[in-house]
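Hi C.,

You asked whether I'd gotten around to modeling the 194-residue construct. I have! Everything is below, sequence then structure, no commentary in between.
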Amino acid sequence: MNYLAHLYFSEPNPLAWSGSLMGDFVKGIVPTTFPEELSRHLKLHRHIDRLTQRSEIFQTSRRRLDPRFRYARSVLVDVFYDHFLACHWDEYADQSLAEFSQDVYRGLQSCYDLLSPGLQQQLPRMIEHDWLTAYRKPEIVQRVLQRLEERLKHKIPLADGFFQLEMWREELENDFADFMQEAQQVTIEWKQVN
């Protein structure tokens, strides 16, 4: 899952949001210096990422995409699922996506000194371009894929993957709805013991 989904599954507070996003930036053992709520949500991020690796629903979405994208099909599905979550946000949350996004941005700013350097670097762009709300727009999905391709030094033509979204939208959207049910249950169970 990508940024929006990890934030959705976290508790609604700044330390939780910070940990939920830092899962993409902090590798290896979670530092003991992190506040408990931040550490807990960093671990939740990793738990959700492991779910995507073993979820038959997620893997079905992966297999729908052109094999030429190889291992990057998982990246494409992550981005597509965030797009669907943004598009269907009102079905999953009581608070509007615009309000939620602003709360998250303020919360992350309030924890800025605790954020990993990579997330500190991204946060101003995230806020300026309102990444979380922008995921609703197909052209933003295309831009995200272009940026990811650049980060991968153009080894995989991720930007071309946008057309897979157009080709498989209905099937992928149905997969997403099923995956959200699975992920919600897994998250509830994880939170009960962690």
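If it helps when you're writing up: The chain has one domain: 3-193.

Thanks,
B.
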